[in-house]
Structure formats: C-alpha cells, structure tokens
Design brief:
Elements lengths: L2 H25 L11 H23 L5 E3 L5 E6 L20 E5 L28 E3 L4 E7 L11 H18 L1 H5 L2 E7 L2 E6 L13 E2 L4 E4 L11 E6 L9 E2 L1 E3 L10 E4 L11
Parallel strand pairs: 1-12
Antiparallel strand pairs: 2-3, 2-13, 3-10, 4-9, 5-6, 5-8, 6-7, 7-10, 10-11
Helix pairs in contact: 1-2
Keywords: Membrane, Transmembrane, Transmembrane helix
Pfam family, one: Peptidase_M23
Organism: Streptomyces kurssanovii
Amino acid sequence: MSAQKMLVLVHRWGWMAFFALILLDLFAGLPFDRRWVWSPALLSLAILVVALVRARRTRREHPREAVEVGVPVRGRWSALNSPADRTPSHGTHGYGQTYAIDLVAEPAEGARPGFKVLWPVVRRSRDFPAFGEPLFAVADATVVHAEDRQRDHLSRNSLLAVLYLMIVEASFRDILGVRKIFGNHVVLDLGDGVFAAYAHLRRGSLTVRPGDRVRAGQPIARCGNSGNSSEPHLHFQLMDGPDADTALGVPFRWRGLEVPRNGETFTAGDTVPGGLHTP
C-alpha cells in the first residue's frame, strides 16, 4: 500500500472516529476531556490540506494534455457538471474528478423528469430515460475494476431530497470512500497511464470483469442510479491511475464531437473508431 493511499485511509478513519466519539459521548458520556473529541477531525483536516497542496503542485508542475477518446453513450444526451464550463467540474479534485462529466439521456424534449421543489420528493429510477441505457468502451482497453452489486436507489431531484443528499448522504458516503461515492462502477486501463472510470452503473448490468480486453465501442454496462447520485446518469472521467482515491484527473476530448457545456444536448452516433490518441 502506498503512503498516499495510507493517508487517504487515515483521513477517512479520522472522521469515523470523530463521529463515533460524538455518539459515545451523547449516549454514554466520555471518561476524558471532551476537547479530545476533536482530535480525529483535526487530524483528518490536516491530512486533507496537505493532500490538496501536493495535488495542486503536481498539477502545476506536470500538466496533462487532453486525451482523445470515443463517446461513452449513444443517442441524444445532455451534460451536467461539465469540464467545458469549469474545472474542477464537480467542485473538487477528489476521487480524480477534476475533468469529470455527468451525462443524462434526453431522447426528446421533456422526456426526462425535471427538478421539483416539493413534489414528488423522489422518483423511481425507471422514470428516467437514462436508466438502463447501454454504455460503451471509449477505447481499446483492459478492465481493471468492475462491480455492480449495489442497489439503484430512488432519485434525489426535489429540494428536500437534494438537501438530504448534500447534507447527510453525501457526507457519509464520502467517509466510506470510492465504492459508496461511485456506486457500481468500472475502470478501464486505456494504456499510456490513462484510466477511464464509469460510475453509478445499474445493478447487475456489467458485461465485463477484471482482466477482460474490450474494444472501442463495445457495450460494457448500463446506466444506473447507484452511489452518490441524484438521478440515473453516467459519471465519466479519465484519471492517471486505477484507484480514484489517489488518482489525479486527466482532461479529455471526444473523437468527432465537442465536449458539451452544462445543459447542452448532443447526439452521439452508433460507431466510434478504436484507439487512444494524445497530441
């Protein structure tokens, strides 16, 4: 285990210890000075600051060129949290998400349920056109990680549900790590130190397993709503390692198609040439 991975785990365990001590104090009382309760949280915050400084220095000293890959979806979709608008696209460099993009299916105007302030609070996954849509390998690659045992939950696209997601659910998922953030996901080794991650996949939909070789354009899974997800969608990103806990994000271009901005719709064709290309 690398030192960087160990720091990530200590950071996570620190928050777990912090919340455990708070619960212990609330229900049983602590036999020592309560100021010590903050020690694990302060340790975790210190590790986070060090990690952010190191990552920023690495990005500045070793900038990455955009990698050209195929499009991971087919049909008419739109983008959310796009790196074409800002980086980091999701407001964080964590989990290699600097250049990540979220994609939601938009087969026709109004086909995708919109955000509601009050009602319905949640919706079923199958109410969204993205749910169950096939996803495709963006280049010839080797599968290095694949899991699809987590359930697809209800949507979080009302005001009450979004507040629950942001304040409660996301916090606990972050403490539990990549698996609970990404949900069902697959990671492909594209070669040249570049890895593609597909997150929030549908339970039981993977058609590949670690060690498999896949060809560009090959179906590998279906879109779902697992992990830290507000509605069925694909979270796609490139990174410089197979472990999102320690990887840095890598910018990408899509072959034959501009990376869309937030809210912009696009249509991806049925064929994608193989291979990975960097300038």
